[in-house]
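> Could you send the Multicomponent Na+:H+ antiporter subunit E prediction when you get a chance?

Sure thing. Input:
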Amino acid sequence: MNNFIFTFLSLFLIWSALSYPLTNQEIIFGLILSLFISILTQYYNQRSKSFKIKSLYHLIKYFIVFLIELVKANFNMARIVITPSLPISPKIYEVKTELKSNIAKALLANSITLTPGTISVDLEDDTIYIHVVEGTKVDDVEGLKGPFEKILKEAFE
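Output:
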């Protein structure tokens, strides 16, 4: 029930913020839409754990770490592009993940893709195939997951 209420309130607050200034019609439609999506989410996610503040803390921590990694990767890609010899050596690596949750795996793969210089090519079971622009400079294949996997594991498991 906590997940349902949290989902409903979150969706309605986001709807209200995006639809501001609100009319009565928009409030009613937002309430109906938020309720409908919350019911669907509850139906498809019956085995979910209840919402925990600890998970929210880890997701905020993940977002901050992601932004830091994003900035570092952007500077690295800028250095590569500015270098006249364009020092690239593309390679694809196979990396195993310890994450069990499908959402956590998807977030990990998207985090890798969103940081410049790497792209998650495929995600199969517990394996992510990652394309790296500077493949010869990769010393630790497990390091391609960055700090993301540890934080996502704390948040979702």
